[in-house]
Amino acid sequence: MHSFDDVIEIAAPVEMVYQYIFAADQWPRLLPHVVNVTLQTDAQGEQLLAMQTRVNDQIVETRSVRRCTPYQEITFSQITMPPWMNVHEGVWLFRSSDTGTQLQVCHTVEVNEGRLDQIFGAPRTLPEAYAIVSAALARNSRTTMLAVKEMAEHSHIQ
Q: Using one digit for the tens of pLDDT, what is the confidence trace for 90-107?
């Protein structure tokens, strides 16, 4: 397994930043790598998120369970993932800071060693596979974080 994270500072209230990540059903109109989303939320803040995303020249379909603690964290665990992954889970963390909000995302991924041939970029070794998959996940997370930063910092709803 491989874990990695990314963090960004956003000059907006934690409640606003949280809402952009919580409202994943809005992502197709806000994020270029998200093609389609179906989101169900229950009264306890648990979400079932079905999503189609662009990864390089492929459309990848996933389903995740997300547990949401308002203005603090959103954990996610993929229950349906691409065949080249055995595990993909993580957490979005929201912390108030002196300048607004610190947004952090943490990923843990396990590549399916028997399916390396199905990974874009055709890695020959497991370390190459982890590098490719991690880079794609990090790129999409970073795109999401930068879009949230842009929207939150330029919103008139603060």
A: 999 999 999 999 999 999
